Amino acid sequence: MLDGRDGTNRGSIENSQLSARNDLDAVRAWLSNYADTKTTFDNYRKEAERLLLWAVVQLGKPLSSLTHEDLLLFKSFLVDPQPASRWVSANGGKYPRGDERWRPFNGPLSPASQRQALIILNAMFTWLVSAGYLRGNPMALLRQRAKRSAPRVTRYLSVSLWDEVKEFVQQLPQETEAQRAYYARCRWLTTLFYLQGMRISEVAGGQMGSFFRRLGPDGRDQWWLETLGKGDKERIVPVSIELIQELRSYRTLHGLSALPVRSEDTPLIIPFKGKKRCLSRSAVHDAIKGVFSGAAMWLRSKGPEFADRADELERASAHWLRHTAGSHQADGGVDLRTIRDNLGHVSLNTTSLYLHTEEDERHRETVDRHRMNWNDKENA
């Protein structure tokens, strides 16, 4: 049976720690571990779904009967899903599941996406074996080529190209109310991503009530932004007066008080219309891509000598801004430990919770050396 009830790799019912009696329910049990992290859940479900569909449709086998040889075929299939009419959506479009144009793939996967898919599926098989649902993990037999570590981050904007982006934003028209709202969003988005080095999920789910201030050792206010990062790890990021000024301008345009209160649930990115609720990750992604695409078109209008720079901007995404923030801080002389903590690459240990002098230094160094420097007189 294709539901896996009698799969050849099934563990004994007596030893299983799951109530699941078929492959789909077993996969759902695995996915339930990630239900509280939407991005991870969606990615893991997508990869499991692709394998389940491929096994049943292409091989006529349930997941629990797949062998090492089958997974070698699947590994090749990921490089170029064929037949494309069955597996790949037309024009690489993204369609809802109820749409007849929906397909499991939007196109061939990049090498990085192929590796990621295999890593996720290996984790799934390992878990199903640990739970006693499967006898063995056929994915563990695949030979994985060691990925060469990149000598440096390459997906970031140079200082000169970043200056072009800022110049593009500053020249956006502001004659109508709609134009002013669009200009304000572009300026706030680029400022927030760059100065805070945040992930797209952190910006999409963030609220203005997460800004807070406390007294520094000099008796002056220190502003911080609390955010929930990868793996549900909380961290606080130094906030400069420059960012607070931008926040004031952005909030005032939307008819809000100049500064947020601690319990305020206003989203970090305010929707143009409708309720004041957080935008989706895809909406924030599209907003940033819109800035980069607009800047690319603007660069091309300046002459053919700007074509290469425009091409690079069109490839850029929100995550490039995070890399840009980290790279510019490092190049500007900010201590790498400060950058590590600002970006949340490594969680703080328990002892650091008591090292307030270390945090004070991190705040001073970040806001002094990492600046937006808009070239206008708006905040003069």
UniProtKB/TrEMBL annotation:
User: What is the recorded name of this protein?
Assistant: Tyrosine-type recombinase/integrase
Domain Tyr recombinase: from-to ranges: 152-368
**Annotated compartments:** Cytoplasm
Lineage, top-rank taxon, reads Bacteria
Q: Recite the UniProt keywords alphabetically.
A: Cell cycle, Cell division, Chromosome partition, Cytoplasm, DNA integration, DNA recombination, DNA-binding
User: Per the record's keyword annotation, is Cytoplasm included, yes or no?
Assistant: yes
Q: Which organism is it from?
A: Paraburkholderia bengalensis
Query: Does the keyword DNA damage belong to this entry?
Result: no
User: Which stretches make up the Core-binding (CB) domain?
Assistant: 21-129
Q: What residue spans carry the region label Disordered?
A: 359-380
Q: Which Pfam families match?
A: Phage_integrase
